[in-house]
Amino acid sequence: MENQKPNSKTSSDFISVYSNLPNLLNNNKIISKNGDENHQKPLSLWPGMYHSPVTIALWETRSKMFEIMNDPSIDAPPQTNLLTKTPSQSRMTVLYNFSSDFILREQYRDPWNDMRIGKLLEDLDALAGTISVKHCSDDDFTTRPLLVVTASVDQIVLKKPISVDRDLKISGSVIWVGRSSIEIQLEVIQAGTDHPDSDSVALTANFIFVARDSNTGKAASVNRLSPETVKERLLFEEAEGRSVLRKKTREDDKGEYINQEMNRLQALLSEGRIFCDMPALADRNSILLRDTRFENSLICQPQQRNIHGRIFGGFLMHRAFELAFSTAYSFAGMRPCFQEVDHVDFLKPVDVGDFLRLKSCVLYTELENPERPLINVEVVAHVTRPEIRSSEVSNTFYFTFTVCPEAKAGTYGTAIRIVVPATEEEARHILERKDAKALQSTNCADKRIVLDIRRFWIEECSTAHVNEK
Questions:
Q1: Most buried pick, 3, 174, 362, 426, via CB within 10 A?
Q2: CA–CA separation, 25 vs 27, rounded Å?
Q3: What angle do CA 228, 231, 232 make, to 5 degrees?
Q4: Per-residue pLDDT tens over the stretch 294-319
Q5: Measuring CA to CA, which residue among 259, 257, 159, 149 is closest to residue 211?
Q6: pTM exceeds cut of 0.90
Q7: What is the pLDDT averaged over residues 158-171?
Q8: Are 186 and 154 contacting, i.e. CB atoms less than 8 angstroms apart?
């Protein structure tokens, strides 16, 4: 805007507006081979302006690869030389200086002075993506870098509340690779209130990425991984087990129900039928699944794109989390407390300009522990194209919440209801999700026992070896 002000107006009538991202502007210059600055990168090559400062900083670390991948004048050959890398070579850490940076603290604070989990999910996805790019790189800027995309989130578990009053760090590395898939494990670490000098893990997250050729879009082989330490080898084996489980789950036939499953299905449907046929006689401690539904719609904007020009997966997780939180809040009648992301599938990419519809419901509740009831929320994202009358599922998200103790203490007579299905399709969906979660928990527990035994014997053998020397 012009700084010249009309004589008839006072200075208070004229307000200049400036970008609050000057560093990003300066960093988005194209540098020629002889070192001269040419001109600004086209806006189409910039990441969106919506994202958190951490996400923007992480994407800046990928800027050179990003330029090569998106510059049509560079006809680079594909990567063909597969390297063997260690987990430590991909390790990255992000530090949040909440204790000294008031502005940063305000960007991540929720209304209850806790961490905005949705915003943290964005940063986790950005960090996992940067780590996967780092592992896939052949350290040769003359070749065409691979395109890595989020395939799924295996699990994100909150182990303790995260405060915005104390410094925080996220650290992670590649823990397993397949032919074209990569698993990254991240840990959110923060000092406790009782022991400010000792850090402890507040949250763990496992992301699955897949590599694609940036020109053809076909699956591409990734660098091999060579675990070095005992912990790295154990993490590799755990991830290998999860990969086998995912493949087995995909191959299993879910169409046929044996007698026992049909009995579970009918039992689940029985209360729902009473709601539909005799609503006055229905159990007041139950509620139909369809009555827990919420929906949110939006047009995906350019400011929400990632460095590849598509809508950032972390943004989708952020929006899904906030809808899930609102759904659980309305359902429970008191402030929910996030527990974990059970699973996220990224089925189809979401593009700038897409009409996105997010639909949520409380899928089921777990009331075995009345002091810690669990609310399981499903969010399904649909990419809708009215012009061609199509709607496709792009993402599915599963979140688990409980009720914050302080919120429960101030609420009288509020009970968490049992969710019941009204249709056979809803009943089958509930059972499939319950079984998937139970299978995941069982396999994790069994795997943990085996790995604890292996860890014990490795340590014993190492001690014996040292004693022999």
A1: 174
A2: 5
A3: 45
A4: 999 999 988 788 777 788 888 899 99
A5: 149
A6: no
A7: 92
A8: no
User: Residue 373 carries which side chain, given as an amino acid letter?
Assistant: P
Q: Are 50 and 56 in contact (CB under 8 A)?
A: no
Asked if 127 contacts 186 with a C-beta cutoff of 8 angstroms, the reply is yes
The answer to whether residues 367 and 418 touch, using CB atoms and an 8 Å cutoff, is: yes
Q: What is the DSSP letter of 416?
A: P
- Strand 294-299 relative to strand 29-31: parallel, antiparallel, unpaired? unpaired
Instruction: List pLDDT tens digits, range 351-386.
Output: 889 999 999 999 999 999 888 999 999 999 999 988
Region of poorest pLDDT, from 264-268, 303-307, 416-420 = 303-307
* Bridge pairing between strands 286-288 and 418-420: parallel
Pairing assessment for the beta strands 336-346 and 168-177 based on DSSP bridges: unpaired
Burial of 60 (0-12, 13-18, 19+ CB in 10 A): middle
Cβ count near 440 (within 10 Å): 17
Residue 209 phi, psi (nearest 5): -115, 155
Find the radius of gyration of the CA atoms of the chain.
25
- The SS3 of residue 364 is strand
Q: Return the residue matching tokens 């590649």.
A: 174
